[in-house]
Amino acid sequence: MKAIRRFTVRPVLPGPLRPLSDLARNLRWSWHAETRDLFQSVDPEAWAAAAGDPVRLLGRVRPARLAELAGDRRFLRRLTAVADDLDDYLTGERWYQTQADGLPAAIAYFSPEFGITAALPQYSGGLGILAGDHLKAASDLGVPLIGVGLLYRHGYFRQTLSRDGWQQEHYPVLDPNELPLTQLTEPDATPAHVSLALPGGKALRARIWLAQVGRVPLLLLDSDVEENDLGERGVTDRLYGGGSEHRLFQEMLLGIGGVRAVRTYCRLTGHPEPEVFHTNEGHAGFLGLERIAELCAAGLDFDAALEAVRAGTVFTTHTPVPAGIDRFDRDLVGRHFGPDAELPGIDVRRVLELGRETYPGGEPNLFNMAVMGLRLAQRANGVSLLHGQVSREMFAGLWPGFDAEEVPITSVTNGVHAPTWVAPEVLRLATRQVGAQRAEDALSVGGSERWDSVADIPDQDIWELRRTLRERLVLEVRERLRASWRQRGAGDAELGWIDGVLDPDVLTIGFARRVPSYKRLTLMLRDRDRLTELLLHPERPVQIVVAGKAHPADDGGKRLVQELVRFADDPRVRHRIVFLPDYGMAMAQRLYPGCDIWLNNPLRPLEACGTSGMKAALNGCLNLSVLDGWWDEWFQPDFGWAIPTADGAGTDPDHRDDIEAAALYDLLEQRITPRFYERGRAGLPDRWIQMVRRTLSLLGPKVLAGRMVREYVDRLYAPAALAHRALTPDTARDLAGWKARVRAAWPGVSVDHVETTASTPTAELGTTVGLRVRVALGELTPDDVEVQAVSGRVDEQDRITDATVVPLKPAGTADLEGRVLYEGPLSLDRTGPYGYTIRILPTHPLLASPAETGLVTIPPEEVVEGAGVVLR
C-alpha cells in the first residue's frame, strides 16, 4: 500500500545529546573527520544505512540507544569536545580577520549549483563542486560569504544502465525536511518568501532554505510552494532541466530572487549587507538588474546605477566555448521585463541591450547571459591561466580596437577543498608527520609554497599508503559493480566473476567526469587491441576505473557511455576495466585516492580548468593529461605526464584523435608502466615514490581552494569593495555623466601627426627615440584622455607583440585648431624587428581597466605612412 501523505518525524534528543542536532545541521561535518567519527559511533549500522548523513542517522537511531548514549560519560565528553571545537571554528578569528582593514564586510556568491556533500545533491559536475569548495574554503578562512542558489526538488538525475549499457535517468524526489536544511522564517514564525512578477499579473514565489556551511550561510530558493500555480511550482524541479522559458525562470529566480533573498536574510539575522556580488558563471547575471532597480528606486538614474552596480560586481566565466553559454531569444526576455512583468521601473530596451551580442558574428536576436555578466561586472576572470587567455580571445569583440591580451578578463586558477577530498589515511599520515593543527592549517588555509615535511616520510610508508588506498578502491568498485549489474537485471549466480575484478597490486588508472564529447570518454578505445594488450600485459598490466554522466538530452554522450560499457562488459577484460554508474561526490571521494594515475584527455583548449586531477594529486595520484586547464599551467615531469596534442588548425578530427590516442598508449607502454613496476634494492618502486612525494610537496600547496579564495579576496573582492565604496550616488552620477560626455565627443578625437627623431629605419639597442604627436581632442580636455606609445617586437604583418606602453605628456596648451602636442621618449630595448604606434584612450581614476569604456583611437593610414610607425 502507498501512503497518501508523507510526514518527516524528527527524533526528540535527550537533553545531554542536544548538541548532536547543531552538529548535524552544520555541514562542516562533511569535511571534519572528528565530527563524522562521533556520528558513526552513535550507531555504526545506522550510519552506514544513512550513507554517512547525520540528519538521516538521527532519524533512524532507536530511542533506547539515544537513552544509553545520554548516560555514557565517555561519549558525552567526546560530544562536548566536538561541539566546543565547532563553536571555536564559528566564532574564532581566522585568516580573513587578521588582514588589513578595507576588506568587504560581506560578499554574496551566486551559483546555479553547489556540491557541498552527497547528502545535499544540488550539483551536476565541476561547476557545482567548485562552488561548494569555494564556500568551504571561505568558511575555513573566515571570509564573510553568503552563498545563493536554488533548491532543486529532484536535484540532478541518478544514473543507471540498461542491460545493453544505455544510460537511464531517474529523478528521486527530495524532501527539504529530510535534508540538512532550515527554513528561513519571519519574526512571527511564518516562512520567509521572495516573489517575482510574471506577465499577466501572475507571480513566481519562492521560500528560502538555509544550509549552514561552516561559517557560511547558503540560501536556496524553492518554488514548490502552494501559492504558486503548477507551472511555477516546477521552476526549481530539476537542475538544468526544461526548455528555454523554464531556464529563464530559473535564472531570473536565481539572480533577481537571490538578491531579494540576501536582503531578507540580512534583515532577519543582522548579517552585514554584501558590498561585493560574485556571479559564478552567467546563470545568475540578472542579479545586476535587480541591484540597478534598487538604486533607481532610491533616486539614481539607470546609467548612474549601472556604474554603481558594476563597481561591486565580480563575474567568473567557466566556459571556453560560445556553445556553453546560456542564450535566450530576445523577445522571450523582453516579455518578462518591463511594465507588465518584472523590474517595471527599468526600460526593457536597456535590459535587452545588456545581453546583445554586438561583436562580429554575434546573433542580434539572442540575449547572451555571459555578455550581460561582463557588462554588469567591472571585474571578470577565467578559471586558469589558459582559460583566461581563451576567454579574452572569445569575448574580445566586446572591446573593439584592443588586442585580446588587453581585454579586462583576468584569471584565478581553481582549487579544491583538501579537507573534503583528502582520504582519511592521507590525513592521518600528515597529522603524524606535523601534528593535527599544522596539518589542518596546511590543507585549509595554505599559504606555503612547499610542504617540505613530506620529504621526511619514509618510502615504505608512502608505498603502503598507496597500496591501502588502492585496496580500498578495489573493494568499493566490486560492491558498486555488483549493485550495478543487479540493476541491469543480472542474478547473483551470474556475478561470481566480480570477486576477481581489479587487483590491489596493479597500476590503477581513473577517469571520471561529465560526458560531453570534448572530454573524449572513449579516446582510450581508439585502438582496442592495443588497449587490451595494456590491460592484460603479463608483467605490467593496468586496470581502469571509469565513471561519468551524459546530459539527459545528449544522445551522443549516451552513445559514448554505451560504447565504453560494452567494451568493459567483454569477459576477456572485464576484470581490468569497469564503468561505474551514478558518479557523484560519495564515489569520487573513494575514487581519487585509490588511483595511481588520473587520466584527462579533453580537446585542448576546451577544458576551462578540470579540478578532478587536483583532488587526485592531493592523495598522491599522478596526472596523465593533455596540457589543458590547470595542467597546462602547473605541469612538471615530477608530477606526471603530458599527452602530446595535435590541435593545429586544419587537423582532421579523426586523425587528431588517432595521433593523441597513440601518444597515450606510448606513454603508458614505454614510460608509465615500467616506472610503476620497476623495483629498487628495497623492493620498492623508488622512482615512482619520488614522483608521488614531489606531487604532494610541490603541487599540493598550489591546488588548494584556500589559495584560490585568498586570490579572489586580494585581487578581486578587495578592489571591488573599494570601488563600491567610492561610487557614492553623486560619484556614480559624475562617472556616468563623464562616460556619456566622452562617448559623445569621441568621434572628434584623432591622431593628426606623428614624428620621431629617428633618421634611419635602423637603430642600435639602447637608443632612445623622441616622439612628438599632435592630437585633436575635440570637446575633450587632456584630463579626459591618455596618449600612449605602444611598442614592441613586430611580426611579418607588423603586429606588435609583448607590448610596452608608455604614456606621453602634453607639451603646452591647445593650438587655435584645438590640437594638443604630446611628447615622450621611446626606448629601443629589444633587438630585431621593432615597432611602435600611438593610441588615445579615455582615462578616469574610477576606471578599473584602460579598456573599460571600449574606446580607443589610433593613427589613420595617412599618418602611419608619413611617420614610419614601424622601425626595422
TrEMBL record:
Keywords: Allosteric enzyme, Carbohydrate metabolism, Glycosyltransferase, Pyridoxal phosphate, Transferase. The keyword rRNA-binding does not apply. Its cofactor is pyridoxal 5'-phosphate. Phosphorylase is an important allosteric enzyme in carbohydrate metabolism. Enzymes from different sources differ in their regulatory mechanisms and in their natural substrates. However, all known phosphorylases share catalytic and structural properties. Gene3D superfamilies: Glycogen Phosphorylase B. NCBIfam families: more_P_ylases. Belongs to the glycogen phosphorylase family. This is glycogen phosphorylase. Pfam families: DUF3417 (PF11897), Phosphorylase (PF00343). It catalyses: [(1->4)-alpha-D-glucosyl](n) + phosphate = [(1->4)-alpha-D-glucosyl](n-1) + alpha-D-glucose 1-phosphate. SUPFAM superfamilies: UDP-Glycosyltransferase/glycogen phosphorylase. Signal peptide: none annotated. Its EC number is 2.4.1.1. It is an enzyme of class 2 (transferase).
